[in-house]
Each structure stands twice: as structure tokens, then as C-alpha cells.
Amino acid sequence: MSDQDSKFWSNAQTYGMAVICMILGIAAGYLLHAPAVASPTPSTPSVSDLSAPASPAAPQMPSASDMKRMADKQVAPMLADLEKHPNDADLLAKIARAYMAGQQFQSAQQYYEKSIAAKPKVDALNELAFVYVKLGDLDRGIATLNQALAIDPKNPQVLFNLGYFEWKGKADPKAAIAAWQAFLKADPKSPKKVQVEQMLAQAKKHLSIPAGTKTEKPAM
Predict the structure, then answer these.
(1) Under a CB-based contact definition with an 8 Å cutoff, are residues 108 and 131 in contact?
(2) Which member of 9, 16, 85, 116 lies 3.0 to 4.6 Å from 70 by CB, making a disulfide possible if both were Cys?
(3) Sign of the CA dihedral 24, 25, 27, 29?
(4) Binning pLDDT at 50, 70 and 90, where does residue 216 land?
(5) Residue among 37, 53, 47, 23 nearest 131 (CA)
(6) pLDDT digit string (tens) for 132-177?
């Protein structure tokens, strides 16, 4: 590597890793209470991250190629470990999370799927659902959340995501209501209780509208 390249990475990596940490911080907010709520489980996506705008005060973001290089650099030692333990579900999920943080969603999908094939876990399924939606496959995202619920039917993180995807993505108020009611029952003291109750009230106003119908009265 040339001195010029070294200087570039000295600056770019410092900022880029800060950006990745920021993305991870946003992502970490979701799994327990969705969207952007603090959770004890790190590296978990929020459905609100799907279209989160950049801060107007933030400096210019790294390019997609920069993000890919930094993600590849971060996972390199994990990939070396993976050669020794190819079926380590936790290691596979860790690699997937690093790629997701670097916005390398296709690579994240690949390693999440390998992790789940080795050992299905609710956290990995929930995160993979987020990746599928980011890649434009809402139906597969919802199916993956239902797969997670087959393991843990009362998981509040998954129930919130399911309701959100059914409501905002599929415009299916009945399915969204069922998921959010189950969420409130599973986590009655959730800090997102008021938000969920508001969304439930909104969804109930649409029960007479066929699933898949988009309307802004009130907005879905």
C-alpha cells in the first residue's frame, strides 16, 4: 500500500468506522422495542432505519465502495476463524452483522442464511428479515419473522416488526393489529406501548379496507 493510500485509510477508516458504529447504534435500537429504541441486544436493526435520513450536520458519508472495503477489512479475521469452524452459527451471524452495518446487505443475507441453517435463532431470523426488506423482498421478510415466532411466539421484538411490516408494507390492518396486540401482551411495560397503541387505533380505522389497499386517511 502506498503512503497516499495509507494516509487515505488513516482518515477514511477513522471516519468510516465511526459511521459503522453509528449505524450499529441505530440498528441496536430495534430488536427489543423497535424502531430506534435502546435494547440490550447489540447490532439489531430497526424498521425505522429502512429510510432514515442522514443528519444535515453530518459530514459527507463514505462511498459504497469505501463502506465495502471497510466491512471486508472488519470481517477478514472472522472469516479466518470461520475456516476452522465453518458451522459456527454465532460466528456466521457476527459476520452477517458486520456486513449489515457496512450496508453490504447481500453479503449479510448470505451469512445470516448460513447461520440459520446451522442453528436457527430468533435474533438472526429477526435481523435477516430486516435484510430481506432492505433488499426489497417484503414477503420473504414477513415469512422469516413468522419462522422466528415459530421458535418464540411471544418475542416482542419480532411481533413489533411483524406488525410494522404488515401495516406499512402489506397494508394489512388485521394482521398488523394481531401482531401488535400480541406485542402488548408479551411486553405490557414496553416504553413503546403508547406508540403501539396509537398505531393500533390507526389500524383499526382501516379494518373495512381490503388488505393491500393504500390510503392516507389516516396514513398507514
Answers:
(1) yes
(2) 16
(3) positive
(4) low
(5) 47
(6) 999 999 999 999 999 999 999 999 999 999 999 999 999 999 999 9
Say if 132 falls within a structural domain: yes
Nearest to 50 by CA among 116, 124, 123, 103: 103
d(CA 162, CA 29): 16
Q: What is the mean pLDDT of residues 110-126?
A: 98
Q: Which cell numbers in the block locate residue 204? A: 383499526
**SS3 state of residue 52:** coil
> Got the DSSP string for 123-138?
HHHHHHHHHHHHTT-H
Choose among 164, 18, 41: nearest CA to 101: 18
Beta bridge partners of 219: 216
In order of 15, 98, 220, the CA distances from 42 in angstroms are 21, 11, 29
Write the CATH number for 65. Answer: 1.25.40.10
pTM score: 0.71
Domain encompassing residue 61:
3-156
Instruction: Report yes or no on 138 lying in a domain.
Output: yes
